[in-house]
Design brief:
The complex is a heterodimer.
Chain A lengths: L3 H10 L6 H22 L13 H10 L9 H16 L6 H25 L16 H10 L1
Helix pairs in contact in A: 1-2, 1-5, 2-3, 2-4, 2-5, 3-4, 4-5
Chain B lengths: L2 H4 L2 E4 L10 H13 L3 E4 L8 H7 L1 H18 L4 E3 L3 H16 L1 H14 L10 E3 L1 H8 L1 H8 L8 E5 L28 H8 L3 E2 L18 H17 L4 E4 L2 H18 L6 E4 H8 L17 H6 L4
Parallel strand pairs in B: 1-2, 1-3, 3-4, 5-6, 5-7, 7-8
Classes of the chains: A mainly alpha, B alpha/beta.
Chain lengths: ~150, ~300
C-alpha cells in the first residue's frame, strides 16, 4: 500500500498510452488503496474478499460499517467499477481514451473524499449526514487533555 | 385526494440559504410555481433547520429546530405538505421526521423544548416533507411540462448534479426506491426527467451524487476546490454545457470553487452553473432576470442568449 499522499500523483500519472486496460487496472488498484487507508486508519484489516466480482466494492462496504456517511462515496466506487468494465470489455472502443480520463476523475474524487474525511475526523463532520464525531467521549476526552 | 392535488398547495420552507447566497433559487422556485399555477404559502416565522452546525453540537436540538418548522406548518397553518428546495433543509426535516418516529428520547426532548418555546409539539406524520423536484414532478409531471414549454431547452446539454444529501441516508427517505415512478437513491433522475421534458439533452454524469466538499469549504478549501474541479471537469468531459443544481449549498460551492480553481490551480473549466428551476423557468417563457440569472456568480447570460433563452 503506497502512502496516502502519493496516491493523488499516481492517479494523475495514469495514461491511456500505451495500454488503456492496464491504466484502468492501475486506477482500480489505486482506488482500492485509497479505501485501504481509510479502513486501516479506523483500526481494521482491509478485506481480501470481493463483492459482485470486485474487491473495491467489498472494501467500500467494510469502510462504511458503523460510518453511514461513508456511503457518500458508494456510487463513486460503483462508477469506478462501471468504467473499468467499459474499458476492459471494449478496449478498442472509440471512446476508450475519454472513458479512462473519466475513470481518473472518479478515482481522484474517491481519493479526495477519503483523504478529506480522514483529515476532518479530527475536526468534526465532513459529510453533513455523518455521525457527530465531536460528541464521541474519546474525542471529548482528547480535547480536554489538549486544553 | 391524489398526490397531485395534495402538492398543488404546499407550505414553503425556503430556509436560510435561499435568503442569502441562494436567492436566485428562491426567486426561480417562486416564479416557476407561479407560472405553473402552484400555490406556495411560506411557513410563518420559520427558523433555521439546524443545518450541520447545530447537528454537530447537539443532534436532538437539530431535530427540535426542524420539528418546529413542521409544527408551525401543521398546527398553525393547517398544511399537510412542507416543500423545502434546499437539500440541507429537506434532509434535516426528513431526518427529524424519522427520529421522532423511531427514537423516544428525541421525541421527549422535542416535546420539552416545544413546551418551553410555547408551541404545540410536532407529532410524527403530521406533515409530509418534499423537495422542489417532487413538487414539480408530481403536480405537473413530464407531460404537463412538455405542454407548457414555450422556449425549448433543445441544444443545451445538461449534467444534472444532485449532491450527496438529496438521497442519503436512504432510511430517512422511505418513499424513494419504492418501485416504478419513484426516485432512486443510487441514480436519482427526477431533475433529468423534468429538464428532458423541457427539451434539454442530459448527459451521462458519473458524479451526480458525489460529494462537493461543501462542509469542507472553510476548514480545507483546497480539498473542496479539487472536489469541485473534478465535478466540473467530469461534466465537461461528459459533453455538458451546463451543470443543473437543486441545492443552494452545492450551487454556491460549484460557483465559488470554479473561480478559485482558476485562481489557485490555474484550471479554467468553461461550464455554466444554473439552478434547475432557472432552466425550467426560462423554458416556460420567463425572462432570465425573472428567474434570477443575474444573481448567479457564474455568468451565463451570453450563453443563454446564444441558445435563444434570453
Amino acid at each position: 500500500m503506497r502512502p496516502l499522499a502519493d496516491l493523488e500523483a499516481a492517479i494523475e500519472a495514469v495514461s491511456a498510452v500505451p495500454d488503456a486496460q492496464a491504466g484502468a487496472s492501475e486506477l482500480l488498484k489505486l482506488s482500492e488503496e485509497s479505501l485501504e487507508h481509510w479502513i486501516t486508519a479506523r483500526g481494521d484489516r482491509p478485506t481480501d474478499e470481493e463483492r459482485e466480482g470486485f474487491r473495491l466494492l467489498a472494501l467500500h462496504r467494510q469502510g462504511a460499517k458503523g460510518e453511514p456517511s461513508f456511503n457518500a462515496c458508494r456510487e463513486t466506487c460503483r462508477e469506478i467499477v462501471y468504467h473499468y468494465n467499459l474499458i476492459s470489455l471494449q478496449p478498442m472502443h472509440a471512446e476508450t481514451t475519454d472513458r479512462l480520463a473519466m475513470m481518473k476523475m472518479i478515482s481522484s474524487h474517491l481519493y479526495l473524499f477519503i483523504s478529506g474525511k480522514m483529515q476532518v475526523a479530527e475536526l468534526g463532520e465532513f459529510c453533513c449526514s455523518s455521525k457527530p464525531i465531536r460528541l464521541a467521549p474519546e474525542y471529548q476526552a482528547q480535547k480536554r487533555k489538549e486544553a | 385526494m391524489t398526490t397531485k392535488e395534495k402538492y398543488k398547495k404546499v407550505a414553503y420552507y425556503p430556509g436560510c440559504a435561499l435568503e442569502g447566497t441562494g436567492h436566485a433559487y428562491n426567486r426561480s422556485t417562486k416564479a416557476v410555481g407561479k407560472a405553473l399555477g402552484l400555490d406556495l404559502v411560506e411557513v410563518k416565522n420559520w427558523n433555521c433547520c439546524g443545518a450541520m452546525e447545530v447537528k454537530n453540537v447537539d443532534p436532538k436540538l437539530q431535530t427540535y429546530l426542524s420539528s418546529r418548522v413542521m409544527s408551525v406548518a401543521a398546527n398553525e397553518m393547517d398544511m399537510d405538505v412542507v416543500m423545502a428546495p434546499c437539500n440541507g433543509c429537506y434532509h434535516n426535516l426528513k431526518k427529524a421526521e424519522y427520529d421522532l418516529k423511531h427514537d423516544k428520547e428525541s421525541a421527549a426532548v422535542v416535546d420539552k423544548l416545544s413546551q418551553k418555546a410555547g408551541h404545540k409539539t410536532y407529532e410524527s406524520g403530521q406533515v409530509e416533507t418534499i423537495h422542489a423536484l417532487d413538487w414539480i414532478k408530481e403536480t405537473i409531471g413530464e407531460d404537463g411540462l412538455r405542454d407548457r414549454v414555450r422556449n425549448s431547452l433543445k441544444g443545451i446539454r445538461v449534467a444534472n448534479y444532485y449532491g450527496c444529501m438529496y438521497t442519503r441516508p436512504r432510511h430517512i427517505f422511505p418513499e424513494k426506491d419504492a418501485g416504478p415512478g419513484s426516485e432512486s437513491t443510487s441514480k436519482p433522475h427526477f431533475m433529468d426527467d423534468l429538464l428532458a421534458a423541457a427539451g434539454a439533452e442530459n448527459v451521462e454524469f458519473p458524479l451526480k451524487t458525489a460529494c462537493c466538499g461543501g462542509a469542507h469549504t472553510l476548514s480545507d478549501s483546497d480539498t473542496s476546490t479539487k472536489l469541485v474541479l473534478n465535478i466540473l471537469k467530469a461534466a465537461k468531459l461528459a459533453g455538458a454545457d451546463v451543470i443543473a443544481t437543486e441545492c443552494p449549498t452545492c450551487h454556491t460551492g460549484l460557483e465559488m470553487h470554479q473561480i478559485r480553481a482558476e485562481k489557485r490551480l490555474g484550471e479554467k473549466v468553461d461550464i455554466k452553473i444554473l439552478y434547475f428551476t432557472q432552466l425550467l423557468g426560462m423554458a416556460l417563457g420567463l425572462k432570465p432576470r425573472k428567474v434570477g440569472v443575474h444573481e448567479n456568480i457564474s455568468d451565463s447570460r451570453r450563453f443563454l442568449k446564444e441558445k435563444g433563452l434570453a
